[in-house]
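Write out this protein's structure.
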Amino acid sequence: MSWLDEVKWDADGLVPAIAQDAATGRILMMAWMNRESLALTADTGFAHYYSRSRQKLWKKGEESGHLQQVSELRLDCDADVIVMQISQTGGIACHTGRESCFYRRWENGDWQIVDPVLKDPDTLYRH
């Protein structure tokens, strides 16, 4: 049995993957992985994901330059979530130009934006 067979993939062959900053512990993002992207991540040491909307593999930072170097992969007790300890090139993980995709906090009955945009998202991606 392959180590990949130990992962409990969902009906679409995907597993949620959480990228956590190895230095600070901050959760930067969550994305989906399939077998191929998880294997590529393990083989290369850089985070690869599966885009459900584009129906294809993508290497984090392939367009923006904000690569995620992976120092550790963990599988949870139910074998259905991956957590990666990463170093984020450029300090931006979110496509909105923020450090983290989790930039809204529940306050006073509403979601408040609490993290600044570090770089204009229009300048992050090559089109």
